[in-house]
Design brief:
The chain has 138 residues and is of the alpha/beta class. It contains 3 helices and 7 strands. The strands form 2 sheets. It has a 5-stranded mixed sheet. A two-stranded antiparallel ribbon has the order 1-2. Strand 4 and strand 5 form a beta hairpin. The two termini are 63 Å apart.
Amino acid sequence: MAISSAASDQDEVLSEINITPLVDVMLVLLVAFIVTAPLLNNAVKVNLPKTAATQPPEQKAPPVTVSVDAAGKVYIDRDEIQQSALEGALRSRVAANPDLTLHLSSDEAVAYGNVARVMASIERAGVTKLAVLTATGE
């Protein structure tokens, strides 16, 4: 846009960029993103159909449960075991049953590091089927 100055005798052309329309467009885009951002989540809410209860597929052997209590003690099924001996005990069970299913449960008061060490022992033992048990509810 060219603006001529009437105060001078010369015919000078002053070139200036008017940024007001640019700011207006940016503010409109900002408001649009602020309004739509909460709607952009990946959760899909569906109502699942009701069906009759079915039997789970038969397993060759019952799953082994590894538990960590609030004091940090480790148990295989209901037998207490030292953390250092966990990997060896699981290796022998995997050798006897390569299709071993393992359930891991831990008290919520246990430090994350303790659970991570147990999970590392489970992985090194060669367990390929692991379920982490949690409580349901709110």
